[in-house]
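Quick check before the chapter quiz. The format below is the same one you will see on the exam, so make sure you can read both the input and the output lines.
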Amino acid sequence: MAFSLFKKTDVAKWSKWTMAFSLFKKTDVVGLDIGSNSIKIIQLAPTKKGWKLANLGMTQLPPEAIVDGSIIDSMTVVSAIKELAVQQGIKIKDCVSALTGHSVIMKKVNLPVMTEAELAESIQWEAEQYIPFPMADVYIDFQILGADTEGRGQMEVMLVAVKKDVINDYTNVIKEAGLIPVIVDVDSFALENMFEMNYAIAPAENIAIVNIGATITSINILRGGVTIFTRAIPLGGNQFTEEIQKALGVSFKDAETLKLGGEVSGIEAGGVPEIVERVSVNVALEVKRSIDFFLGSAPGIFISKIYFGGGCAKTKGLPAIIQERTAVPVEMINPFANVECNPKKFAPEYIKDIASYFAVAVGLGIRKVGDK
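Here is the expected output.
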């Protein structure tokens, strides 16, 4: 398995290179997004204009199978991946997956100016002062964010570390499910790749991608399309569900239905909107705190837009509350905006309905074996 956290080149350039050598051939990997609430799998293929959707599917996981990014019930996760791959007729074995939450340590640091090759040789020593674990216990990767434009002899570097036992847990369940984990990415950088593929990027523009999952909300701030700030908040869709569950005395499944505005036979759901609004305000305040923290470290700049995705993005009223609390325009992210989807194979309404779930998966699906 090649452990690789970052894309090292611009996605558009990389996509053109890929197409030059594999035009009309299916991509040789599938994207596998293993979340706390569901598993998403996707297969994309390059075209003359970009990418087309070849296959996708999603299956739910029971509560507590994965908690805070840690796999608790590996047998259940293995079975879910196996069944999903069979149901979707996935033939490709090589897959790209991602980690999220507190299993990933990410820090933007200033280091002495050096080449990428020199940094690769010295990164273990440079990282020791920033990573609270023995270097022997973690995988390290980095990306140089900016050159020394002010002559200070310093450059900005995004440093990423993941404990080896966490990587091993994920790669083991993937292998036991019959797939081959060729790249392990970080969800923030999968989102960055997905965004570059689908949206025009202004060089000096700052945007935020807020991806709210079942247990973790990840906030990713991009400047000119490059990640410069990330934060993982231990708050997500399950909190909505659990609050509804406690208030109404219903099952987790029924509470999920009510959360999304559905109806459950025999249940009076009159108080659900108030519960959803209360938790939505908590989420919005955490998003605002993260953005304020970033802005406080970078005076004179602002966030022009928040792109909102993840399984919980469909919670009624949540995008509007985040927009109100942050005073930043919020737009639902569409990871299929520049992806060709054959309407005879994939119903447009279905793709629109599930789009927010697949933001990370699309970013994983455009990676290639050997991609740096």
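If your answer matched, good. The chain has two domains: 1-103+163-199+337-372, 200-333.
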